[in-house]
């Protein structure tokens, strides 16, 4: 395991985006909080929940019922249960245990955007317990409307709906994509998958016969462009793609260092990798790349199975069971493309509106 002791927030992925560069602090004095608000996306926990949940997710977008029924089949295949709520229960318990270990008396309240327990329920619970200052942690690491600003809108709506806007204050922590605690599991997962593949296949050429897939949630190209302003140095794909690329580069560098792989001339990665997108919600307008389409289009020689390493954040788990990082055994003729850094295809071609 790569030693990350002594690394402070943001230093594992150094200046991953212009917005991550150090600058003046937002506050000059620390704030005392009464509780942590764990803010999740929410997911169905039974067949009867599926359609109502999807109506919540798509509220105001004019999605026809027949389309919801099509999407529902993915949940019904697993008994109508999304794993995201159970993951968040485990995360809540882990946060509580760690706070207790550190001697910090700070309760954790859980609220969701789209399913029970709803955000308004969490706000009411806070009021009933006498809490007035909450620090919110959303289970979405990267910058985009739905993973950042929309949660702030959720908080405002919950406070308004409960009539507690003048009584309770909610502050949200920054996106945590570059926090060592978030990045390290991806490093461990990729490293272990590559070690296993190399151990099982003695003649494996890691530079041409393995491909690592970093899977994330698809968002509209327009939303991606708005996730970080060009005035801060982002390109047309915004902070969402830039942050994913930065983390992937760090993960690959650390995993390859653990395997004692030689760094190519000019830098970059020895093992080819791609950023792929899952859970597209709109019609494709251009060529795209997803975990399933990528693995299906990459043929394996006889006896060379496709290999997956599941490593994901909670916000992705609701719609894709094995997302995060993966390795596949392509044909021996497959080579890294030159369409992006380290074989990364341009993000604009993989997202759809």
Notable characteristics:
353 residues; alpha/beta; Rossmann fold; 2 domains; four-stranded parallel β-sheet; 8 strands; globular; disordered C terminus; lyase; ferrochelatase activity; Ferrochelatase_N
What does this structure look like?
- With 353 residues, this protein is an alpha/beta fold.
- It has helices at 50-57, 65-76, 84-101, 119-128, 145-162, 180-200, 221-225, 238-258, 291-297; strands at residues 35-40, 108-112, 133-138, 169-172, 211-217, 273-278, 307-310, 324-328.
- It folds into 2 domains: 18-43 and 82-172, Rossmann fold (3-Layer(aba) Sandwich); 180-349, no CATH class.
- Helix 1 crosses helix 2.
- Residues 4-10, 285-293 and 295-353 have low confidence and may be disordered.
Nutshell version of this structure?
The protein has nine helices and eight strands.
């Amino acid at each position: 395991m790569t030693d990350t002791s002594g690394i402070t927030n943001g230093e594992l992925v150094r200046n991953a985006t212009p917005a991550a560069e150090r600058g003046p602090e937002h506050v000059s004095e620390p704030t005392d909080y009464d509780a942590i608000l764990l803010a999740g996306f929410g997911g169905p926990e039974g067949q009867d929940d599926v359609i109502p949940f999807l109506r919540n997710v798509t509220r105001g977008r004019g999605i026809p019922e027949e389309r919801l029924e099509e999407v529902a089949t993915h949940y019904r295949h697993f008994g109508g249960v999304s794993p995201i709520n159970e993951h968040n229960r485990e995360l809540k318990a882990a946060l509580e245990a760690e706070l207790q270990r550190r001697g910090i008396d700070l309760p954790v309240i859980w609220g969701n955007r789209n399913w029970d327990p709803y955000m308004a329920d969490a706000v009411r619970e806070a009021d009933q317990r006498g809490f007035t200052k909450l620090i919110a942690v959303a289970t979405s690491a990267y910058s985009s409307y739905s993973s950042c600003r929309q949660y702030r809108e959720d908080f405002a709506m919950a406070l308004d709906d409960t009539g507690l806007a003048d009584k309770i204050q909610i502050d949200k922590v920054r996106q945590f994509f570059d926090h060592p605690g978030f990045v390290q599991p991806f490093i461990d997962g990729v490293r272990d998958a590559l070690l296993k593949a190399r151990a099982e296949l003695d003649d494996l050429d890691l530079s041409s016969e393995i491909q690592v897939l970093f899977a994330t949630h698809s968002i509209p190209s327009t939303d991606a462009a708005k996730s970080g302003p060009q005035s801060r140095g982002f390109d047309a794909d915004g902070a969402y793609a830039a942050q994913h690329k930065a983390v992937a580069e760090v993960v690959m560098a650390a995993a390859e260092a653990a395997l004692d792989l030689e760094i190519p001339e000019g830098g970059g990665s020895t093992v080819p990798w791609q950023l792929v997108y899952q859970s597209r919600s709109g019609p494709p307008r251009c060529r795209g790349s997803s975990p399933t389409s990528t693995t299906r289009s990459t043929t394996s020689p006889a006896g060379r199975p496709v290999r997956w390493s599941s490593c994901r954040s909670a916000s992705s788990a609701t719609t894709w069971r094995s997302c995060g990082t993966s390795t596949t055994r392509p044909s021996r003729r497959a080579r890294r493309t030159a369409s992006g850094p380290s074989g990364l295809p341009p993000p604009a071609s993989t997202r759809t509106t």
